[in-house]
């Protein structure tokens, strides 16, 4: 337990190694999309266990999905997200590339296209434990929904310094889906 370096964070087993792997990719100077895919490969190869989070953090919150920023630096940030059954994000897109891996449960993602006055659904994905993917704007309008009956936990990496609680969201879409 190193309470000197990160006094507000519990020990995160495996996190320093994972950050090294991510940093190796983000420092290559690739474009956003290949960077996101390369970081997704790192997440797939070095998927941490759910014990990256404390037992209390893994519970989530019945009132809202919980984001826990585990690390930020200038090139990227790492967040753990805990979704109780039924919890979902707004339909949104991002300013920065993003890669994620599921640690527990299943994350259901729906992709949309913006037609100005409405959206259409253009794809769906269901990712289970150890499955990772990456994407980069533009064209990354999506919603994530835990439609399963167990709490889902995932690790998200964004290509930006999010500070303590930022989310890199460019826009939330309150448009009808046709
Ligand atoms: Fe997102």
Q: Helix share of residues? A: 10-25%
What's the architecture, going by CATH?
A: Sandwich
Helix/strand class: alpha+beta
Mean pLDDT over the full residue set? 92
What percentage of the residues does DSSP assign to strands (E)? 25-35%
Rg over alpha carbons: 16 Å
Question: What is the level 1 CATH name?
Answer: Mainly Beta
User: Strands across the major sheet, in which order?
Assistant: 1-2-9-4-7
What's the helix count? Answer: 3
Number of strands: 10
Order of H and E elements: HHHEEEEEEEEEE
Bound molecules: fe (ii) ion
Reported for the largest beta sheet, the result is: 5 strands, antiparallel
Structural shape? globular
User: Any low-confidence stretches, pLDDT <50, length ≥5?
Assistant: 1-6
N-to-C terminal Cα separation, in Å? 52 Å
The CATH superfamily appears as: Jelly Rolls
Keywords: Dioxygenase, Iron, Metal-binding, Oxidoreductase, Thioether bond
Organism: Aeromicrobium ginsengisoli
Binding site for Fe cation: 92, 94, 142
GO molecular function: ferrous iron binding; oxidoreductase activity, acting on single donors with incorporation of molecular oxygen, incorporation of two atoms of oxygen
What does the model show?
17% of the residues lie in helices and 34% in strands. The chain is an alpha+beta fold. The protein has one domain: Jelly Rolls. Strands 1-2-9-4-7 form a five-stranded antiparallel β-sheet. The longest helix is centred in the first third of the chain and has 14 residues. The relative contact order is 0.23. The site of fe (ii) ion (FE2) has 3 residues, from strand 3.
């Amino acid at each position: 337990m190193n309470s000197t370096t990160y006094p507000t964070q519990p020990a995160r087993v495996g996190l320093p190694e994972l950050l090294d792997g991510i940093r190796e990719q983000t420092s290559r100077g690739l474009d956003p999309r290949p960077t996101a895919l390369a970081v997704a490969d790192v997440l797939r190869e070095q998927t941490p266990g759910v014990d990256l989070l404390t037992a209390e953090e893994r519970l989530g919150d019945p009132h809202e999905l919980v984001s826990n920023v585990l690390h930020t630096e200038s090139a990227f940030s790492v967040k753990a997200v805990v979704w109780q059954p039924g919890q979902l994000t707004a339909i949104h897109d991002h300013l920065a590339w993003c890669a994620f891996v599921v640690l527990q449960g299943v994350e259901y993602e729906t992709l949309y296209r913006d037609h100005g006055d409405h959206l259409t659904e253009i794809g769906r994905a269901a990712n289970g434990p150890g499955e990772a993917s990456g994407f980069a704007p533009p064209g990354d309008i999506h919603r994530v929904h835990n439609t399963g009956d167990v709490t889902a936990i995932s690790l998200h990496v964004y290509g930006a310094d999010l500070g303590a609680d930022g989310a890199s969201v460019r826009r939330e879409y309150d448009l009808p889906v046709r």
